[in-house]
Automatic annotation (TrEMBL):
Residues 259-469 form the Peptidase M1 membrane alanine aminopeptidase domain. This is Aminopeptidase N. Residues 49-215 form the Aminopeptidase N-like N-terminal domain. The gene is pepN. Transmembrane segments: none annotated. Belongs to the peptidase M1 family. NCBIfam families: pepN_strep_liv (TIGR02412). The keyword RNA-binding does not apply.
Length: 877
């Protein structure tokens, strides 16, 4: 129940003004702010500053007394300020205390109490901490009972912590005071300038911050363990993590990559780091990988804490994410998008710059190969879906901000920026970016502002480029078309085809064409030619007269964003010569061409696997092995789904994958990274009784593999696999492992291993928890959803399939976008047959009212079912 002081009750009449004005009516108690409402508000409000005073005690609620200062252009209508589900105790507007006109979403401020010019609002309230990863999230460590808090505000969740104009184009300054338990650390955008004792508490005071959008501000508090490095660069660096996981952190790696990144970005941008210190905080239950809060970046523990020495891939991932978030400190925090339609540029640019910095400022000089194998492939896949969308799309409300946050937003956007840099020239691109940051520092900017800075630096019009690349969807295909006569090329052109039937956009970009021929021991590079192509057909006269090649690759070194279709001669060469390609990026691209042919139905899956069994054991490149293994995990998933078709082949093929992985685990002893990669693959491919029995023996210590040690994460991986296939004794092993590991990751691993068991009662129990308000924290439900219906458990999946489809619309309506981003892709049933295709088509037709996120997921799963059926029909054994 809301509580108000006597003065508030006595002056309640002041708040009884009409609420029929335009702004209040237009918001209509909706939980989300529209772009039109936001633009109208920012046109009236300026010079905002917040004075925040929090009382934190570790309980499930917090208190805040805040003052908001702002300048108002007019008093023609009420003004709203966002505040979510607070228990307001006192509201004061320009010295008038009154009963708040409050709907649990925003406060409506009476214009009669506002004034043209400077205004002051004071509001005191209490609120429950969030437990869904937004607002001011509270986590209780199951190991030691310690309480940790952290904030997460993107896109519009700052209102879950304080009263705020919660939109990116109302930048403000923040002055912060926090009273917290004496053993806590408190972290925010600025470094504290005083800490005073107050009994069992301490009072932290933080000076006024630079101007920030609300989603870039932050507050993190708790008994965090702290590491500090003031010597590696011009800015003090700190790293924080929970006490119980501190031993899993490698602070020297964090500080090394951070210092290298700060130096690289200051040199590249020509703009000093905008904030005076660099804090990084590892937090539990985080919704995403990391968040670029100004000067106080948060990272998901689950991504960056490991119970064994980090592999090269894990280190590269850490470096890449540190540098991605660091790029945001300039591009996102210093210069911020005006509205959420600019979120793609924010993320794309950070993905591009993060990879560029990783390749140039760390030991991972092969970072662009990793980007090609993972990020770029996810972008090609997403852009080939029926649900593809342009990079730049409208965002009507804050509730739609994350509708299009996907591989197109991150990886296609980054790829497009990469090829634009290639087209304009590296130095021209860098100058355009630097000019943009200098021009719009501490302000908001738009896509046109960014493209305008690049166009000015390049002295060329980028209007058509922008229309073709940013406002149209789909990935085009590029193929070399050539003729040879008397052993030399007599004609050569590049043929560009539109993304899909009915689409017509043909784009301009710069690529590099490579000619290769078979040598004695390797496929030899004969010639490369840079080409700017556009239109349907681009002639390449520079290649006329060259020796006829055995293989042509028209996007050598991966300059462009385009799907390559190999000509027939080149495809045959690629399939037979993979092991003879010395260039690892080209080898990676040729492997990808084979896999793309499987997905399109042109190459039977069994033929691809035959190629794998011959060539993969010879592969030594760590990144490329990871790329191929990802295709094998997809292959296993399809084969499991295809039952009862191809059962004999499925069993034989997956058993062969497990045996190959085990053999390579033993052969790579002494190379820790490769051995762990192959051993993890062995665990994941194990499904036959012999492999599962071996895993059980390894877990129990009755067998061993030289060089392999079972850290806690690996033990859980084995326990989950044994329970997935209900190997005898696996349930007891699960219980024993849960008794060994009481950590947060252990609790979640136990949930995964429990839910994945092929038991109907377990499935129904957890389905009820997921669908109903069970009180279970969302981070645990997310784990359960991801493990509920593995591909081979078709009968258990089918048992509740109709129920899940019938309740999909209601779930979508009541659970919200964060929940549905996990629920829809994991809980919509799949079966890899025509009946399932028909069923999903019917669900699409019957539910036009589904949210954008859920409808898109449903249509993509339908397309994936159709693909699985085609692949199944193409298998020739």
């Amino acid at each position: 129940m809301k509580q108000f002081g006597l003065i508030a009750l006595a002056t309640a009449a002041l708040g009884a003004c009409s609420t029929s004005n335009t702004e209040v009516t237009s918001r209509d108690n909706a939980p989300y702010l529209t772009q039109a409402q936001a633009m109208a508000r920012s046109a009236r409000v300026s010079n905002v500053s917040y004075d925040l005073n929090f009382q934190l005690d570790g309980s499930d609620s917090f208190a805040n007394q805040e003052t908001v200062y702002f300048t108002l252009r007019d008093t023609n209508s009420p003004l709203t300020i966002d505040l979510n589900r607070a228990n307001i105790q006192r509201l004061e507007i320009n010295g008038h205390v009154l009963y708040p006109n409050y709907n649990g979403i925003y406060l409506s401020l009476n214009p009669k109490l506002l004034q043209t010019g400077d205004n002051q609002i004071k509001v005191s309230f209490t609120r429950k901490h969030s437990t869904n990863g937004e607002g001011l999230h509270r986590f209780v460590d199951p190991v030691d009972g310690r309480v940790y808090l952290y904030s997460h505000f993107e896109p519009a969740a700052a209102q879950q912590m304080f009263a705020v104009f919660d939109q990116p184009d109302i930048k403000a300054t923040y002055k912060l005071t926090v009273r917290a338990p004496a053993d806590w650390q408190v972290i925010s955008a600025t470094r504290e300038d005083s800490i005073n004792n107050d009994g069992d508490f301490r009072v932290w005071h933080f000076p006024v911050s630079p101007k920030l959008s609300a989603y870039n501000f932050s507050l993190h508090a708790g008994p965090y363990h702290m590491w500090q490095d003031d010597k590696s660069g011009p800015y003090p660096m700190r790293l924080f993590a929970r006490q119980s996981v501190a031993a899993q952190v490698a602070p020297e790696e964090w500080f090394r990559y951070t210092a290298a990144g700060l130096k690289f970005f200051e040199n590249y941008f020509g703009v000093p780091y905008p904030f005076k210190k660099y804090d990084q905080v590892l937090v539990p239950d985080f919704l995403y990988g990391a968040m670029e809060n100004a000067g106080a970046i948060t990272f998901a523990e689950g991504h960056f804490l490991h119970k064994a020495k980090m592999t090269a891939e894990q280190k590269q991932s850490l470096a890449g994410v540190i540098l991605h978030e660091m790029a945001h400190q300039w591009f996102g925090d210093l210069v911020t998008m005006k509205w959420w339609n600019g979120l793609w540029l924010n993320e794309s640019f950070a993905s591009f710059m993060g990879t560029l910095a990783t390749a140039n400022a760390t030991e991972f000089d092969y970072a662009w190969r990793s980007f090609y194998a993972k990020g770029k492939q996810s972008a090609y896949e997403k852009d080939s879906r029926v649900t593809t969308h342009p990079i730049e799309v409208p965002v009507p409300t804050t509730g739609n901000a994350f509708d299009n946050i996907d591989a197109i937003t991150y990886s296609k956007g980054a790829s497009v920026l990469k090829q634009l840099r290639q087209l304009l020239g590296e130095e021209v691109f860098r100058k355009g970016v630097s000019d943009y940051l200098k021009t719009y520092a501490w302000h908001n900017a738009t896509l046109d502002d960014f493209i305008g800075s690049l166009a000015k630096a390049a002295h060329r019009d980028l209007h058509q480029w922008t229309q073709d690349w940013l406002y149209t969807a789909g990935v085009n295909t590029l193929e070399a078309s050539y003729q040879c006569s008397n052993g030399t090329i007599s004609s050569f052109s590049l043929v560009q085809t539109p993304a899909a039937t009915g689409q017509t956009v043909l784009r301009e970009q710069k690529v590099q064409v490579a000619l290769l021929r078979k040598g004695h021991h390797e496929l030899e590079l004969m010639k490369t030619v840079p080409v700017i192509y556009q239109g349907a057909n681009t002639q390449i006269p520079a290649l006329i007269g060259e020796r006829c090649p055995d293989l042509v690759y028209p996007n050598y070194d991966d300059w462009g964003f385009v799907k390559v279709k190999l000509d027939e001669r080149s495809f045959a060469t690629a399939q037979s010569q993979l092991a003879n390609v010395s260039d690892p990026l080209l080898r990676s691209m040729l492997w990808q061409s084979l896999w793309d042919s499987v997905k399109s139905g042109a190459l039977p899956l069994n033929d691809y696997l035959d190629t794998v069994f011959v060539n993969l054991p010879k592969e030594k490149d760590y990144t490329l092995i990871g790329q191929i293994l990802s295709t094998l995990y997809s292959s296993k998933n399809w084969l499991e789904q295809m039952a009862p078709l191809h059962v004999d082949y499925r069993d034989k093929a997956i058993r062969a994958l497990a045996q190959m992985s085990l053999r390579l685990t033993m052969e790579t002893e002494g190379n820790n990274d490769l051995q762990r990669r192959w051993f993890n693959a062995y665990i994941d491919f194990a499904r036959d009784s012999e492999s599962l029995a071996h895993l059980q023996e390894l877990l129990q210590g009755t067998s061993k593999l030289e060089g392999v040690t079972l850290d806690q994460d690996t033990r859980w991986r084995i326990v989950r696999q044994l329970n997935r296939y209900d190997y005898p004794g696996s349930k007891m092993l699960l219980q024993q492992e849960a008794q060994r590991d009481h950590s947060d990751t252990g609790i979640k691993a136990a949930i995964a291993a429990t839910v994945i068991r092929p038991e109907a009662d377990i499935k129904r129990e957890w389905l009820a928890r997921i669908q109903n308000e069970s009180g279970e924290a969302y981070p645990k439900l997310r784990i359960a959803m991801a493990n509920m219906y593995p591909a081979e458990q078709q009968l258990l999946n089918a048992a509740t399939a109709e129920e899940r489809l019938q309740t999909l619309s209601q779930m979508d309506k009541t659970k919200g976008p964060v929940f549905m981003r996990t629920y829809a892709p994991t809980m919509i049933p799949m079966a890899c047959n025509n009946g399932s295709v028909d069923r999903l088509q019917q669900v699409v037709s019957d539910n036009p009212q589904l949210s954008v996120i859920t409808m898109r997921t449903l249509m993509e799963l339908l397309q994936e079912e159709q693909r699985c059926v085609v692949i199944s029909e193409k298998i020739t054994r």
